[in-house]
Design a protein that fits this description.
Layout: H1 11-21, H2 25-52, H3 59-70, E1 75-77, H4 78-85, H5 89-101, E2 105-109, E3 117-121, H6 123-141, H7 148-164
Antiparallel strand pairs: 1-3, 2-3
Protein name: DNA-binding MarR family transcriptional regulator
Keywords: DNA-binding
Pfam family, one: MarR
């Protein structure tokens, strides 16, 4: 159910006020950071979902197709997909199976390791991911809802947060993380 318009008060600011009123002053900023980022993710996810809906793609399916399209030959080992998408192997396998069923990806044995699988983008998959990328660029990425200066600052803050969480290691890989 969608709201007809903006709320008259920021519920996250009210939550912070309540946190402080209940004596949790030292954790109020942390709670606000976490809930603010989670709410921002919900807002961005809704925009992404709306842009991908005409293509019958979830963001997980789109990411896998886009990753394959970025590779030199449209083929990657399943283990590389898992590593690069930073998602549990079961989730990647499930997503890949749906893409195989829809003939957007082919799954085959690894040429040198019979236990491993390869994922290959089909022409239908390549065509679909290009159209979906054009829609995401036009409807979401061109204007994610923050001005360019704020975007650069937000990207840097989140990159520092990710690095501290162990998402990637220093020295920085090439190209530099955002």
């Amino acid at each position: 159910m969608s709201r007809p318009g903006p709320l008259p008060v920021d519920p996250l600011a009210e939550a912070k006020r309540q946190w402080i009123a209940h004596g949790w002053t030292t954790t109020a900023d942390g709670m606000t950071v976490v809930t603010s980022v989670m709410r921002a993710q919900q807002l961005l996810q809704a925009k992404v979902d709306a842009a991908l809906r005409p293509f019958e793609l979830s963001f997980a399916r789109y990411e896998l197709l886009r990753l394959l399209a970025f590779s030199r030959e449209g083929v990657l080992p399943l283990s590389s997909v898992v590593s690069r998408l930073q998602v549990h192997p079961t989730s990647v396998s499930s997503t890949a199976e749906r893409l195989v069923k829809d003939t957007l990806v082919r799954r085959s044995r690894h040429p040198y390791d019979g236990r491993a699988a390869m994922l290959e983008l089909t022409e239908a998959g390549r065509e679909l991911v290009e159209r979906a990328t054009a829609a995401l660029n036009a409807e979401v990425f061109t204007d994610p809802g923050v001005d360019p200066d704020d975007a650069a600052e937000l990207i840097a803050i989140v990159a520092r947060m990710r690095r501290r969480a162990g998402d990637f290691a220093d020295p920085r890989p090439q190209p530099d993380p955002l």
